[in-house]
Amino acid sequence: MITWTCKTFTELTPDELYAILRLRSEVFVVEQNCVFLDMDNKDQKCHHLMGWRDGKLVGYSRLLGSGISYVESSIGRVVTSPAARGFGVGRDLLDKSIETLYRLYGKQSIRIGAQCYLTKFYESFGFVQKGEIYLEDGIEHIEMLLL
User: Fold this and answer.
1) Is the pLDDT of residue 140 over 80?
2) End-to-end CA separation in angstroms for the chain
3) Which of 24, 1, 4, 23 is nearest to 96 (CA)?
4) Using CA of residue 10, residue 60, residue 45, residue 140, what is the dihedral sign?
């Protein structure tokens, strides 16, 4: 059973913030072997969706209003714990991310910058590819839009 919570940056406890940054580093820096500055000064403007199971952060995304990353609202830093993979946490996370973003900002288009290997995953939620493939921190990405 996963417990979902969503908080603004200022509502996060130090332990929650630490768990978020640790999970993002575990996957985006260590697992994907990508040296990049994860803290990009957008976290302070976002809502942070966290999925907790047995006191451990197993899923996370940040929800951005329009004008922060794109003209449209956005979902970013979508990540599941390696220990929780294979149990549908990623699907639950994206479902909850879309639902929560709509609740916060109203039903509107959502633009994401997806890692190319996850294109089919995002398409299964209705996202469509927009634009050309681009490199971000050495990883192929493509913008996708959910209307």
Assistant:
1) yes
2) 30
3) 4
4) positive
Residue 93: count of CB within 10 angstroms of its CB: 24
Whole-angstrom Cα distance, residue 97 to residue 68?
17
Burial of 45 (0-12, 13-18, 19+ CB in 10 A): middle
Is the confidence at residue 69, as pLDDT, over 80?
Answer: yes
- Indicate yes or no: pTM above 0.85: yes
CA distance 137 to 139: 6
How many CB atoms are closer than 10 A to CB 133? 11
- pLDDT, one tens digit per residue, over 73-92 is 999 999 999 999 888 999 99
Alpha-carbon distance 84 to 60, whole Å?
A: 12
Strand ranges inside 26-138, DSSP E:
47-53, 56-64, 74-80, 110-115, 128-136
Domains and CATH numbers, the chain: 3-108 (3.40.630.30)
